[in-house]
Amino acid sequence: MSRTPGFSFSELARDGHARTGVLSTPHGDVLTPTFMPVGTQGSVKTLTPAEVAATGARIVLGNTYHLWLRPGPELVAQLGGLHAFTRWPHAMLTDSGGFQAFSLAERRTLVEDGFVFRSHLDGARKALTPEVAMEVQGLLGADIAMQLDVCPPGGAPRPEVEEACRLTTRWGKRCLAAKRPSQALFGIVQGGTSVALRMAHADELGALPFDGLALGGFSVGEPIAMMHEVVAQIGPHLDPTRPRYLMGVGTPIDLVHAIGAGVDMFDCVLPTRNARNGQALTQHGKIVIKQARYKEDRSPLDPTCACPTCAGGYSRAYLRHLFMAGEILVLRLLTEHNLHLYGRLMREARAAIAEGRYAAFARAWLGASGAGNANDANDANDANDANDANETVGATESTE
Amino acid sequence: MSRTPGFSFSELARDGHARTGVLSTPHGDVLTPTFMPVGTQGSVKTLTPAEVAATGARIVLGNTYHLWLRPGPELVAQLGGLHAFTRWPHAMLTDSGGFQAFSLAERRTLVEDGFVFRSHLDGARKALTPEVAMEVQGLLGADIAMQLDVCPPGGAPRPEVEEACRLTTRWGKRCLAAKRPSQALFGIVQGGTSVALRMAHADELGALPFDGLALGGFSVGEPIAMMHEVVAQIGPHLDPTRPRYLMGVGTPIDLVHAIGAGVDMFDCVLPTRNARNGQALTQHGKIVIKQARYKEDRSPLDPTCACPTCAGGYSRAYLRHLFMAGEILVLRLLTEHNLHLYGRLMREARAAIAEGRYAAFARAWLGASGAGNANDANDANDANDANDANETVGATESTE
């Protein structure tokens, strides 16, 4: 299988199914497991690239759908590509645009050739084919591109899920044929909550020369326990020589489970979107900052947290005041805090795997999280919804 | 005259009427001339304290009206005062709340005792007397408090302006009687555009033991050239042993003129508010970032600027994209840029005064600014309006 020059993955240590490794890209090495903050429109909302990197992130995700419509891939390419445009110096991955084209756009239809839809911005008619997805991603110039895929909703009938797998494979081949030599390309395994369909599709895509394999179609409405169970089985089944990426997931608890199943990469809007809705995540639960109980609370969000918000001495009372007053600063401070939590989780997971104590680490994390806290069952399903709509509009009306 | 312990002003050098000095406060020394960024609700909008300090600012302004209504001065005091609450370690000044109580609040009336009004937030009935203004400011705990004053609109009839001066003097005496020993207090000279009224009122207030003297009632609708002319005459007339503060003004050009008249301190929402409206200020004019001409513009806002936005390599094209896409990051980047311009102007003015070349410096600055640019005549009058309304709502609808 021919792989992409400048791109490679090496497993450094394994502990059960969990593993830690290095993803090498033209924009530097990324230690895995890794969490990719979402920079929907060329910005991880509210933060500078330096602040994002300070959370530990060394790869971010850009949304092809949004950047295709605005400012347009030709302009981004003319200005040196997404790295130069956004001043993000580390690795970058773009999705294919299909997920948003299907869920965000208006009057969209799915045909053999791709998606036809109208822009949610100006109603312009657009067609997203595998070739277009590769062309747009090539112009954006991320280190890793994603194939165009079909993502059926949670609970879709089995024939629809099977057809999605077949079409995704056909599109995957067309993407490989259209791919730029300098850009890595990941295939996307579908199959809903059927382990058998997932395994078959993973084998089918694994036979193709993708640089990595992703799990799509999770966190789209299925019960959260079912997602954990299916990922636990399909994760270890994915070709271990390539990076494994669980798309659009999830809560810290979801990530702890999936890392245990051998997943290497994640993205999710949850930490950034929840921050803008006034939610600070901690290992021990979530803080809804507008609650009256924080009105006189002098303590930081999390006394054990070393992020600039907690270490900077900002009290819950002050953060609450800023949120109630609609001040933008609080959106930054909560976003930084949440991404630092994800960064810390990844760092600690890597260390635990390297030291052969991942099971104990996972038990400790899941135990501390308990029930009914930051990792509510609903959050993971919220997350992929937000990947579409909420990240688009920037923030909630109540605060901005 | 008894002055406030821990507070002093020393003139270091004079050049014509322009002067540079040091304002000493319990939270450190402030070199003058100085510009105070406006932190309406306990936050210089979009920025952290460290970012504000990096612009060169060593004193910020807090709005008593806003903080009185939310979160309330008792809470701020309980949490250690405005410095501890907001994490701003340097000097701080609060206004009296009168300007906003009169312009922002609903159903407000002016009586001998003060203002009676209803909160713009919840309609609660409030009375703002000189004693209340001092009590609230005392609880907020800034280094410098302002007396309650009456600010007539631009173009008010002379009898109204005269009565405003008389009432302001009576209120000033009541504020002095109610003032906390640990907090400096400035008097506010009114008199509209009448140099004679201004001089008389300055003498009246100058006879009272205020720690500083401010010029209120400018940039409220009068022609900009008339403001420059009146300030040019009244500035040098204010007691030189005390700091002189021109309230709510203005554009860089206004500041260059007023520094030439011996003014030491300024505040204005213009650099922060205009940033959130997508305007970047430069010495050579203003950049309206949404304009199509910047769509492919790779250059920074100002190649001569060392602010994090310009030095950070963000292109006008990227900033335009962020603004069009409603991304919060651009509001930060433009705010930082604009406040850095004001910081640089103050730094360069101080150096020019110390070196006896202020007139040449002012000519060069005004010449570079030219006409019809960042310093449009309208901007200064906009500024005080914004001090009320626009700073309150956070940002423009179009961008957030």
Keywords:
homodimer; 400 residues; alpha/beta; TIM Barrel; 9-stranded parallel β-sheet; globular
The CATH fourth-level homologous superfamily of the largest domain in chain A: Queuine tRNA-ribosyltransferase-like
Provide the low-confidence segments of chain A as ranges.
371-400
- So how many helices of chain A? 17
Rounded average pLDDT of chain A: 92
CATH class of the largest domain in chain A: Alpha Beta
CATH architectural grouping of the largest domain in chain A: Alpha-Beta Barrel
Q: What class, by secondary structure content of chain A?
A: alpha/beta
What does this protein structure show overall?
Two copies of one chain form a homodimer. The longest helix of chain A has 27 residues, at 328-354. Chain A folds into two domains: 8-270, Alpha-Beta Barrel (TIM Barrel); 275-377, no CATH class. Chain A has 17 helices and 17 strands. In chain A, strand 5 (38-39), helix 1 and strand 6 form a beta-alpha-beta unit. In chain A, strands 4-15-14-13-12-11-7-6-5 form a nine-stranded parallel β-sheet. Chain A has a three-stranded antiparallel β-sheet with strand order 1-2-3. Chain A has helices spanning 49-54, 64-69, 73-78, 81-86, 98-103, 130-140, 158-178, 195-206, 224-234, 252-260, 270-276, 308-311, 316-324, 328-354, 358-369, 377-388, 390-393, and strands spanning 8-15, 18-25, 28-32, 34-36, 38-39, 59-62, 91-94, 106-111, 114-118, 125-128, 144-146, 184-189, 212-215, 244-246, 265-267, 279-282, 285-288. With 400 residues, chain A is α/β, with parallel strands linked by helices. The interface between A and B is large, with 39 and 39 residues.
